[in-house]
Amino acid sequence: MVVTNNVDLPEESELTVQEVNLSTAILRAGSFHLGKYCENQNNEFMLCRFEEKDPRKCINEGKAVTACTLEFFRKVKKACLAEFNQYANCIDKSSGEYSFRYCRKTQDVYDKWVFENLNLERPPFGYFCEVRVHDTKRPKPPVEDKAVYPDATPALPEDAEKKPARFGSRFYWMTE
């Protein structure tokens, strides 16, 4: 996209939202439940980005995703902070790549607390890879017409003089 005087950029007040200021270990610890909790908002945002092909038109959907994320972590903090902190600390300290495999015991405790207090079950393996249809209230954007270009330059007439190449053929192995 070329930025010219005709491009309207959003004001800073439109872009300003409260940040999700959490570490990698905490985001990874809550990622599966967060993805399930905010699935509708995430799908709406990604559909908007895909259909509109312009991030400026999807600012409100992005704000909804951020608000949902903040709401999820606030609920986790109220319901099961100790269990969540144990799980996140295990992910943080057990390996350099924040692996889940060393923390299955603390994960099980955390998953039970989330299910009991937030009624949110951990999604099964491969859940986020499954194909699902997302129903939206946003109107479908108009389909852009394909660009029509004038016909290519007309070819030489059949009876035009065709001189031999000055330096021989590119396909020398075929002419020898």
TrEMBL record:
Its main location: mitochondrion. Accessory subunit of the mitochondrial membrane respiratory chain NADH dehydrogenase (Complex I), that is believed not to be involved in catalysis. Complex I functions in the transfer of electrons from NADH to the respiratory chain. The immediate electron acceptor for the enzyme is believed to be ubiquinone. Residues 138-160 are annotated as: Disordered. GO terms for biological process: mitochondrial electron transport, NADH to ubiquinone. Belongs to the complex I NDUFA8 subunit family. Keywords: Disulfide bond, Electron transport, Membrane, Mitochondrion, Mitochondrion inner membrane, Repeat, Respiratory chain, Transport, Ubiquinone. This is NADH dehydrogenase [ubiquinone] 1 alpha subcomplex subunit 8. It is found in: Mitochondrion inner membrane. GO terms for cellular component: mitochondrial inner membrane. Signal peptide: none annotated. Residues 138-148 have a biased composition (Basic and acidic residues). The keyword Hydrolase does not apply.
